[in-house]
Amino acid sequence: xxxxxxxxxxxxxxxxxxxxxxxxxxxxxxxxxxxxxxxxxxxxxxxxxxxxxxxxxxxxxxxxxxxxxxxxxxxxxxxxxxxxxxxxxxxxxxxxxxxxxxxxxxxxxxxxxxxxxxxxxxxxxxxxxxxxxxxxxxxxxxxxxxxxxxxxxxxxxxxxxxxxxxxxxxxxxxxxxxxxxxxxxxxxxxxxxxxxxxxxxxxxxxxxxxxxxxxxxxxxxxxxxxxxxxxxxxxxxxxxxxxxxxxxxxxxxxxxxxxxxxxxxxxxxxxxxxxxxxxxxxxxx
Length: 285
What we know:
Blueprint: H1 4-15, E1 33-36, H2 48-58, E2 62-65, H3 74-83, E3 87-93, H4 102-108, E4 112-115, H5 126-145, E5 149-153, E6 161-162, E7 165-166, H6 167-174, E8 180-185, H7 186-191, H8 196-203, E9 207-212, E10 214-215, E11 232-233, H9 242-251, E12 256-259, H10 268-284
Parallel strand pairs: 1-2, 1-12, 2-3, 3-4, 4-5, 5-8, 8-9, 9-12
Antiparallel strand pairs: 6-7, 10-11
Helix pairs in contact: 1-6, 2-10, 3-4, 5-6, 8-9
């Protein structure tokens, strides 16, 4: 059982996070902005080439893949992305079949292999999150042996408290900083009632990449991912402090940032255009 004494006793190992290899950019405008392709899942299957080309035309430089795309071979998917003038530095996979996806990610050419979330059947207690952290360490070892980096993505459910700790606390303390990095989804941090800026300041050197989506004003926070948590809007159209987020991301040289909007009120490519235009302005502010 995970007790508070064990939790605090093990925390020191996680605090001394090892710095990631960071890419230096001369200024904020040079930072490559990408798209998590889950945003365009409604149109991508019917026109992969056209959708990817439209993303590049907006100005995005790279994409992050998501689970449903993997009906294509890694070779064909990679070629479609490259043909559109994009790169694919990161790929998402589900927890239950993650073990079988390393070869796919490698052939895809991804630098980062990311677990989207721990299933609720495991992530329902502090001890459950500890088991998840142990699994993440093993996948981190495997990714490192194959020349990739392992990361985990957050939603809001990880911030559910279990006594004096949250699931997120457990993941950060019990994962090896040399093996496991964090992909911070700024929206879901805020939806859980936490401040992305504060967590960037605390964990900046452990963050592998950022997911960028904004949160509508005057909506309640929550710790579930149901319909009452869906307050998505384009980057720069909501309430998150993007100027500070981008400044801290630049200071920590976080290499990758992906716009992801789980649901869009407008056609997804139109939403991606709005986010990109706003990001350009915010980075220059």
